Amino acid sequence: MNKKLILFDIDGTLISTNQNSLNVWYGIINRIFTTLFQTPFTSIDPKRVNGKVDYQLYLTMAQSVGISEHQFAEKKRDVFDMFHREMNAAVKAQSIQFFPIHEAVDFVELLALAHKDAIVYGVVTGNIERNGWMKLTAAGIRDRFAFGGFSDDVLDRPSLVRIAIRNAEAYTGQRFLPGDVIVIGDTHHDVLAGKSVGTHTVAVSTGFTHSHGELVAAGADLVVSSLMDPRVLSFVLSR
Question: Does one domain contain both 84 and 128?
């Protein structure tokens, strides 16, 4: 029997951060735009950021301050390189901190210990790959994941889901149809991405931008406040 595939979002689903870390992140964004485009960028709405992919996010911000798509594309690699260097330095200095969401980690451990013959899992995240793995490392849970879908070269979350599925197939040697896949995330962006690809979706209200009601309205198959809610495992095993 084919294994099922679970794809976990990272920020707000597997890990959390704090307001000071967000403030440091805002400063990094401003330095990137000031250094590479000579254009400061100081106003960011967290609710418009969370759930977006990094490539899309930076391009949208660039265009909002008069930088064309062509101008941004010419410096995209420089943007991502500086973004990673600055984030990595901030994490090492502990001015940016990432913490595991313990119920999510407990759920991953449950899958690994009790259901490893039936389920394989990875990540699907709007982070560029270097930063996604760095965040999981900082939160102490990097070793639990072997593959994922990242945003280095894509502008939308449905593409991330498709990339993550392809990488899961390469890792396992098994084909996964959309009905074999469950996307788990904390924003309506995660839900809509999974639904657009045809996967099952579980939304968990552990993030800081979307309420339980908003996640229900997005059309998730199941909405919970914790991944250790017994309904989550029941849902996964019954698909």
Answer: no
